[in-house]
């Protein structure tokens, strides 16, 4: 559980000023990988080398590799996952 808390603090502390939609700090990152046919991918945060898993069901917009996105992080049985993922305009 300490690993998740450490990762969560990295995400929330560096992006707390970005906004707060449901009591969580939003994170900014880039789609590092996304496989639409398999329905999952990974997002890399803007300010660190941390990667977060994302499932297609959590996407508000279609994304592809390199897209800039805003997202929240929630715990999952396998580790942190991105939720409420939305595409940011350039």
Provide structural commentary:
The protein is mainly β and 90 residues long. The protein has one domain (2-87): Beta Barrel (OB fold (Dihydrolipoamide Acetyltransferase, E2P)), CATH 2.40.50. Helix content is 14%, strand content 38%. The chain has one helix spanning 2-14; strands spanning 27-35, 40-45, 51-55, 68-74, 81-87. Strands 1-2-3-5-4 form a 5-stranded mixed β-barrel. The longest helix is centred in the N-terminal third of the chain and has 13 residues, at 2-14.
Work out the helix count.
Answer: 1
| Helical fraction | 10-25%
Please write the string of helix (H) and strand (E) elements: HEEEEE
Mean pLDDT: 81
Biggest β-sheet strands, sense, barrel = 5 strands, mixed, barrel
Strand content: 35-45%
Class from helix and strand fractions: mainly beta
CATH architecture, by name, is Beta Barrel
* CATH third-level topology: OB fold (Dihydrolipoamide Acetyltransferase, E2P)
Number of strands: 5
Sheet with most strands: strand arrangement? 1-2-3-5-4
- Count of the domains: 1
What key attributes describe this structure?
5 strands, single chain, five-stranded mixed beta barrel, mainly beta, globular, OB fold (Dihydrolipoamide Acetyltransferase, E2P), 90 residues
Brief characterization of the structure:
This protein has 90 residues and is mainly beta. The protein contains one helix and five strands.
Break the fold down into its secondary structure elements and pairings.
Layout: H1 2-14, E1 27-35, E2 40-45, E3 51-55, E4 68-74, E5 81-87
Parallel strand pairs: 3-5
Antiparallel strand pairs: 1-2, 1-4, 2-3, 4-5
